[in-house]
Amino acid sequence: MHVPPWLADDPTASADLAAFQGAIRALDTGIGRILRALDETGLAENTIVLFFSDHGMPYPRAKHSLYEPGCAAAALVRWPAGGWSGGCVIDTPLSGVDVLPTLLDAARVELPENVQGRSFRALLEGTNAAGATRAVVFTEQNFNAYSDVSRAVRAGRHKLMAHFTPGRAFYDSTQLWHPPARVPFIEDQPRTQHPSVELYDLGADPLETTNLASDPAAAGVLAELSALLLGWMEETCDPLLDGLPVPPLYQRTMTLLRSGGRT
After folding, report:
1. Is-contact 9 210, C-beta < 8 A?
2. Residue 82, Cβ neighbours under 10 Å: how many?
């Protein structure tokens, strides 16, 4: 049993991870049925198969966060006729917005100007054409079980996270009083709050334990990544530029109060 390095290696974590691996096995069985159906119908060779998860592992400081374990989503792609096979591993950051451009590229459809992302078809085919490698990746989070509005940018070995609402250092996706897995380098998880910004050197600190945002030696990197993140927010018309988004519940509740409680 492998316990990820950002979690404490203890019996409760191992037991829960064993159950998680069992769930993955069940999912894998279901996917196998789909792939066998493609084989049996003769469609496997020229069918693009994509498998993606929407977030990282369902553990503290992973799911419901913009730390690396939360952004490391599973991604598997296969298209035998297009040369997307053979167990190739792509060691470069990709973003979810890159999926549509890649599919359009595979279908030889011109990419509309207003579509974000870039095709990674060249990477899948092993040609590594110029422009296929992504140097910068942006991520965002808004509402989960509670409002935890954050934005992040990863450029090379550095990563900047910006938090716009107060909250815990990270959210425990199990929502249990005593989670089966814990983060050993956070001593008081329920009462530890995240700072305004976090800056990490992923090359020297892959577990994101040392926040460099207040380190004078990292001031240049902080300024560079801050400009990148703000520029992306402006380019994508991020609603945060005009203030925090109001959740739909606010409007429903105000309507209810103004109507005297009548729905």
Report:
1. no
2. 15
Burial (0-12, 13-18, 19+ Cβ within 10 Å), 258: exposed
Give bridge partners of residue 143 from the DSSP assignment.
147
d(CA 151, CA 159): 11
The closest alpha carbon to 228, from 135, 148, 144, 147, belongs to: 135
How many other β-carbons are positioned within 10 Å of the β-carbon of residue 262?
7
- Count CB atoms within 10 A of the CB of residue 168: 17
Look at residue 129 in the predicted model and tell me its pLDDT. 64
Rounded Cα gap, residues 142 and 238, in angstroms: 11
- Band (pLDDT 50/70/90 cuts) for residue 175 is low
User: What tens digit of pLDDT does each residue of 129-171 get?
Assistant: 666 678 899 999 987 667 789 999 999 999 999 999 887 777 7
Residues 6+ apart with CB under 8 A from 174: 58, 59, 60, 180, 181
DSSP 245: P
The strand pairing partners of 145, in sequence order, are none
Backbone φ and ψ for 68, nearest 5 degrees, come out as -55, -45
Q: At the topology level of CATH, where does 137-252 sit?
A: Arylsulfatase, C-terminal domain (3.30.1120)
Residue ranges, comma separated, of all CATH 3.30.1120.10 domains in the chain are 137-252
Angle (CA) 66 72 75, round 5°: 140
